Amino acid sequence: MKLTTLLTAPLIAISFASAKSPQTYPISNPHAWMPAGPNDFRGPCPMMNTLANHAFLPHDGRNITKANAVAALGNGLGFDADLAELMWEQAVIANPEPNATFFTLDHLNRHNVLEHDASLSRTDAFFGNNHVFNMSIFRTSTYYWTTPILTGAQLANSKIARQLASKAFNPNYTFTANTENFSLGEVAAPFIVFGDMPTVTVNRTFVEFFFVNERLPEELGWKKKDSISLPQIIETSGAIGKAASLLTDGGSAAPHKLRRGDFHAGLAL
Ligand code: HEM
């Protein structure tokens, strides 16, 4: 063997080991944060990416079976099993195979299946990459996050602003009633996982750290909740829905109350 081979072989071995090491978990903390490697899938959901980065989900972003999702959402975030099962069942349609038993984070990128326009932190599919965190887009959302403790109204305002920007400038803008329900859950999610659900408030540093790094804000003092269940999700999403109304009296317009001659009643009356 030539001398150069002898000298470079250990170096190659070392550099190969260190190239691999980001994917190798220290035994002391199997859920230490490690970003995605080049062959790992990630998607449009900052939390699913986060759970993969912490290896609560498979770190490669593949094979998200019901069992894997229940374990990840339970161990990582404190979601109860019934809730986690339901979320997985609603998401498995992202895998185009009939009767699929798993999905991947890449499946979540399929546009207008679960992924949708007007995300808080990703650009619309029409404009480019619909799933990688986009700081410029995120800043247009955080513009409305005006205090260190975020409120439901502030996140609702950022949701409306993103929808308005998409509706105005994206000729393919699509946002159905079903999307709206999904979107309300997403906007409620930071309050559910990181904040106080009854008051619908959350520490802004937790939320920004999570979005930007796709990492649980443990080092900022966040602690996993004991148990999060479906009724809490429904209530918090409902509060965001109310906060997203642009009316100030809490009511809704009732077309049957409009009379002929009312200026805004339109030509149909
Ligand atoms: C089975 C579990 C889950 C699935 C399949 C899932 C899937 C998705 C998908 C497909 C999107 C993209 C929607 C879009 O285009 O904006 C999304 C967004 C989002 N998800 Fe998840 N998600 C899950 C659980 C969670 C949990 C537990 C949280 C808790 C924090 C969360 C937080 C969010 C947030 C905040 C967004 C909005 C991102 C944005 O608007 O930029 N998700 N999720």
UniProtKB/TrEMBL annotation:
PROSITE patterns: HEME_HALOPEROXIDASE. Its cofactor is heme b. InterPro entries: Chloroperoxidase, Chloroperoxidase-like_sf. SUPFAM superfamilies: Cloroperoxidase. Residues 29-235 form the Heme haloperoxidase family profile domain. Keywords: Heme, Iron, Metal-binding, Oxidoreductase, Peroxidase, Signal. GO terms for molecular function: metal ion binding; peroxidase activity. Gene3D superfamilies: Chloroperoxidase-like (1.10.489.10). It holds the Pfam family Peroxidase_2. Residues 1-19 form the signal peptide. Transmembrane segments: none annotated. Belongs to the chloroperoxidase family. This is Cloroperoxidase. It comes from Lentithecium fluviatile CBS 122367. The lineage of its organism: Eukaryota, Fungi, Dikarya, Ascomycota, Pezizomycotina.
